[in-house]
Structure formats: structure tokens, C-alpha cells
Amino acid sequence: MMKIRIFMILTAAMLFGHAAARETYTLNDGWRFYFGNEPSGDGARAVTLPHSWNDSPGSLLRTTADYDRSLFVPAEWEGRRLFLRFGGAGAVTDVFVNGYHVGEHYGAYTAFTFEITDRVRFGEDNLLHVVVSNAWRSDVMPASTDQNICGGLTRGVELLVTSPAIVSPLHLGSDGVLIHPKKVSSDRVEAEAEVHLSAPAPTQCAVTVRVLDGDGYAAALRTVKAKVDRDKTVTVPFVVDNPALWSPSQPSLYRVEVVVTPDGGAADTVAVRTGFRDIAVSAAGGLSINGRRTDLRGVRLFHDRAGRGGVLTDRDFDADLELLRDLGANAVRSEGGPHAPYLYDRCDETGVVAWVDLPFTRAPYLSDVGFYDTERFLAGGRRQLDEIIAQNINHPSVAMWGIFSLLRPHGDEALAYIRELNARAKAADASRPTVACSNRNGDINFITDLIVWQQNVGWERGMFSDVRLWNSQLSKNWSHLASGATWGEEGDIDVQEENPSRTSPLCALFPEGRQTAQHEEYAAALCGDTLFWGVWINSLADYASDRHSDGTVNTGLVTADRARRKDAYYLYRALWNTGSPTLHIAGRNLRRRSDAEMALTVYSSAGEPLLVVGGDTVAVREASACRYVTEPLRLEGRTVVRASAGDASDEAVFIAGSPLVRKSNSGLRKTAGLRMKDSR
Predict the structure, then answer these.
(1) CA-angle at 460, arms to 458 and 464, nearest 5°
(2) Which candidate, 142, 399, 613, 620, has a CA 20 to 30 Å from the CA of 370?
(3) What angle do CA 599, 604, 605 make, to 5 degrees?
């Protein structure tokens, strides 16, 4: 055994000892930006990537713009290959080099790469010209959405310089190495490395795959021969014995290195990180990872941040994941398309489960159409799905592919297309389930492996408590489906009402208290119900939407700038965060109240709180898990409320008998462009 290990190490050292033939250069500086409707580029502004021309709510401009940059290509690079890689651009992009069109890409949230070798002039400056459009299109997903699609080169650009025979960077914007687990157990992993090769002329190559565990030891080593003529896909099977499996509690990772060594040429090396785990779903067993049921507590995450639009930084993702951990959630849903790879890298490392959507969706507006039965729309959706899978398949944290969200299909054509997309996802990746989010009845709910029901019972009709009846009917009639649930309507932290009642869809005011009331009732009815493999909250943070009257959708548990946490945040923190106690007096944002009589609510995971109101101890009762309420109390003037439980304490101040100053619609929100919301 020792001789075999020494031989493997020596062989690997010879194979991987070549000087790196692949070089990557960041091209994020030196760009000139101007809008397409400007008479010329003479007035272009200097910008640094990532960049968007939409950076705040209420200012969304759906248009076309241009980016120019000079690129000097050294003469000594002649004989090598050059590629431009774009991390993402919103949402349709055309790339030109020295006036030649080198490629077009559809979709705002996936990467794409074009080869420019034959269009550059070696030893000279070259002009890169990029045209980006975020204008509404009926042939590009999403054709209907309420989140802003921010225009620009939002994820940066790189130049790749390689030898002739390489692992191809052209396969669907991926690294060219896709890992497919075939059989996964605690004793053994059987997997395949799907390696995409490229060479400008027929070339005989050795393709070596080496798998390294977390300590850097070779867990598998395999070499195959392949003749490459332009493009070729090679499948390299390998086995890992006694693997360290990835799970939310133990996120073990492996490094897979692929070396392509052509006869008489320089080797090309690509390394990817992955993990091995088995995911299974059933109506009775829910979602299991490595044979253990894993109930997901997730939040939706959108593609913007206050002040920066769609340009998200690594620090932004770290901050959101910190919020997620503090909340006690263990899953995130990338709404309407994948986020930048950094997010999933961090999910891989920390054990957060991710759901990644195809942007096949329909916003809740009466005039919207989410599906167009045209060849360009259908082909574009297939391409985006292929890219999403190829670019994220190596992330063990990504546990499911979202096929559609809140569609309202008319006719058999849409259902047939959904079935095609679902089958396409399963063919590309058999190791993950598919999922969809639905607020409809009918056959649309029986296509994907998992279905998540989006509910707003009681928001526009009925009462929030009716969700219990809905849940009972679901359990009675649809328990054979692997169901999840998602909920959460709007609540503006700057809009407060003493007795928030149902808000008309035509009204621009959505008080925080009404959102809180919905979450309290839904959480009590649905959280912890084993009927659901996962529950998902809409959403972690408020997000930008210029289709809404004030430019923001206030469904978040925190504000768009992440600076303020709403009452609902503390409700879920009390329910989900078992490592750090929560004690929070709710309703504090409505400090001044005209009615002197009020009931108090306290969220506590530290046990029944001791509540002192103006110096008097007040009795509380547990209305639902972690939610304690008082009988209506009569307060006078300024009253200090203190709560304590164990080592936790909280304090709030209420001023009773003070007239509530309520901002008018016109003073709080703009009303131009307000659209009727569709009844879901």
C-alpha cells in the first residue's frame, strides 16, 4: 500500500510539475461608458467594472449602453489563444473586437466566454467594444419580473491566455470541468469528470484527473488518452474510497485538478472545488442529504443592494450570509437566476443549502406575460438553463434547480415546455432534484420533483388564520407531493398603523404591522410541520422594483440597506436560532399611539419572559411557539416596557394618548405608474 501511495505521489508530481500555461488577467479598469442614444462616444465617462447604470430605486433606466476599452496584446503571445470571459452582464450583450462581432449572450446572471484569438492584432493596441441592453424583451427570460434587471457589466471581465490544446473555457461559460457523482455512500463515491477539450488542430492529448481531499492527499488519480480535433468531450471515471461527505453540519470539500498534456506541447491545468453528497426526496421522507432528513429554513435573496443596484461585492454576500446565520436559517434561494460564484463558494464552505432558479417567472401584474411560444424565447430558456447547471454543478451546496416560479400558463404549449426543461435539467444533472414555486392549481404542479406553494391567504381576502385550513386541505388532498411552503407580503418599516387592516392593491401603503401579523400566523401554522421539506420566507431583504410605486418591494425581513431589522426578523430568529437566545419586544417602531389600550407581544427563545410595564409586572401567555402576548393594557403617557428571560433582556418605550401622525400616500410614496396587482 505504501509503495502504491509513493508511486501515485511521484506520478502526480511529474504530471503536475509543468509551468502554468494558462494566465488570467483582470480587465476591470480603463473602460469608457456612454449610452447608445448619445450622438457619439466623445463624452464617454471613465468607469471601473463591475458597473451598472442603475444604482438606486426609482431610477431604473431600461436602455442600451456601450463600453469601450483598449487592450494591448504583446507580440510574444502570438501562437497562444485568447479569450474574454464576462462574469455577467444585464441582460443582452454583444461583444466586438477591432470592429468584428465575436459573440452575443442572453441572460443577466450567467457568465459567458468568447474566443478572440483570430480578431486581435499582436504587438498592438486592440479595441474592445461591448454593447449591453437591459431593455424589455419578449424573447429573453425573464420576460416578466418585478425585480429590477440592472443594466451594465455587473460582474467584471477577464482575459484568459492559454496554450493551443486546453480545457475549454467555452463550454456554457463554465470552467470546462463538470463533476457528476454517480453513486455516493459513506464507503465509496463513484463519479465522473466531464472534461471539455479544445484544440485548433488535431492533437493527441493525455487527460489526467487528480482528486485531492481537504488535507491535500490524493484520493483518486486517473489518466486517459484523447485525440482532440477542435472540440471534444472526455468522460473520466474515478472512485474515492472512504470519502468525507458534504453535509450542512460537515461541509467537506475536495479539489479536482485536470491536466491536459498534448504531445510535444505545453500542459493546461484547471482546478475546481466540489463535494460529494447524496440528495433524495420523497413525500413521506422530505428532503434528505446522505440519508438524513434535512428540513430547510430558507430565505429568498434578490440581485440588488441599496445604493449599488445590481453590482454586488463579496462583502455584500458575506454580510447577507451573516444575517442568514444570525437568523438561524440554513438555506438561500437565488431568486430569478444565479448569483455570483462567490456566494456558492461560501455556501459550500459553511454548509448553507442553495436553490438556484431559472428566470422563468411571471410578476403579479394583470398585463404581464411570462411565456412566449416563439423559437427565440424557447431556445433562450434552454440555453440559460444549460448555463446555470454547467456553471454551478460543482457546488455541493447547490441542492436543486428551479425550473419556474409563479407562472400562469395558458394552453398545453407552456406545460410541454416546462416538461421539456425539467427533463433537460435531469439529463444534464441526475444528482439533484428539480423544484418550482407555484400559486396555481392544475397539472403545472406535478412536473418537478419538489413543489413549493406560495401562499398569501388572508392578505387580500379572508383572514390570516385561514392558512390553517389551507394547510389541512393540502395535507388531506396533496400529501403525495413533496411540498414546501413560502410566504411573506410587504411591510414598510416606515409605515406604521395602530390597527393595520387589509390594504387595497391600489393603495401604496403597506404597514409593517400587517406584515408582522401575517408572519406570526403563518409561522405558527406552518413552521415545524413535517408535511413540508422546507419553508422559505419572502425575502431576506427589501429589494428594488421600479414597477412599484416607491421603487421598492418591502417583503424583506430587513430593509434594502440591511440597516434595520423588522419585527418579523426577530420572530424567525426566536424560532430558528438555537445557538443564541432571542428576546424582542415587538411593535416598537409604532412608538406613539393615540389609543391608550394595547396588547404587547414579546418574541422569546429564552423561555417565558418577565414583563415589566411602567414598573408593574404583567402576565403573559404563549400564543404560539416563542411568541408571548399580554391581555390589552391601558398605558398612560410615556411608558417604559422591559422584558427579561435568563440572561437576555430588552426594552422599548411607548407613548400613549399621542395622536398618530400618518404620512399621506403623496408624502410618502410616488404614485405614478402604479399597476394593479394580480390576485394570486
Answers:
(1) 10
(2) 399
(3) 160
